Amino acid sequence: MTGEQQTREILAELLREFHGRGWVSGTGGGICGPADDGGLLLAPTGVLKERVRPGDFFVVDPEDGHVIRPADDPALRPSECNAIFGLTHRQRDAWSVVHSHALTAVLAADLVPRLTDHLAIRGLEMLKGIPGVGNQDTHLVPVIRNTPRESELVEQLTAVFDDPRFATASAVLVRDHGAYIWGDGVWDAKRHTEVYHFLFEATVARRGRQLEG
Ligand SMILES: [Zn+2]
């Protein structure tokens, strides 16, 4: 099995796993990973993510998003995440990005006042799961506004990548929508996806307890 074929199978498996955790339900969310020829394997849009098969991925150019190789099924269209995944690859050298529609990501962004552009996470051992972050650090996760189309998030995301406060962030929260989480490769992206969802859940749960107390 070639590297790319294996990656296609892993990406399909991760979508099923993430669907089981409520992170890519109702056809929402997405994923990308490295193709053999320097392209990005990109999941299709508007399909049930738990049913995506290895042949359903497109190969797109991470520089401009154009389709290098289509999915096997001609009825499929490439994910709306295309422009954002390409930008994340170019700015952060990420070969794999997960787009989550998890409720916990929406609720975590809700904790941040409208005029504040980040969620501060502190006091959790799991922070060590993010490269360059320790368990004594206050980790800032950027929060951006939602837009009518996913591709329109590019402008805000470009500003985030240029902001030195967010140099160690491997995730961005999108208000009322979800999150983008990335890593150097597929397994890094999977690990960061699990770590950030834990961090979001813990922060939301702790804030709720403070409000009750
Ligand atoms: Zn989305």
In words, what does this structure look like?
Helix content is 34%, strand content 18%. It has 213 residues and is of the alpha+beta class. The protein has a nine-stranded mixed beta sheet with strand order 4-3-2-1-5-9-8-7-6, with helices on both faces. Helix 2 (82-92) packs parallel to helix 4 (154-162) and helix 3 crosses helix 5 (186-212). The chain is globular and about 55 Å long. The termini are far apart. The mean pLDDT is 96. Bound molecules: zinc ion (ZN).
Distance between the termini: 56 Å
As laid out across the biggest beta sheet, the strand order is: 4-3-2-1-5-9-8-7-6
Radius of gyration, in angstroms, nearest whole number: 17 Å
The rough form would be described as globular
Low-confidence stretches: none
Oligomeric state of shown chains: single chain
DSSP strand (E) fraction?
A: 15-25%
The major β-sheet equals:
9 strands, mixed
Q: Which percent range fits the helix content? A: 25-40%
Small molecules (ligands, ions, cofactors) in the structure: zinc ion
Q: Main traits of this protein?
A:
213 residues, 9-stranded mixed β-sheet, binds zinc ion, 5 helices
Question: What order do the helices and strands come in, and which of them pair?
Answer:
Layout: H1 3-20, E1 30-34, E2 40-42, E3 58-60, E4 67-69, H2 82-92, E5 96-100, H3 103-110, E6 118-121, E7 139-144, H4 154-162, E8 171-174, E9 178-183, H5 186-212
Parallel strand pairs: 7-8
Antiparallel strand pairs: 1-2, 1-5, 2-3, 3-4, 5-9, 6-7, 8-9
Bound molecules: zinc ion.
Zinc ion is lined by residues 28, 99, 101, 150, 177-178.
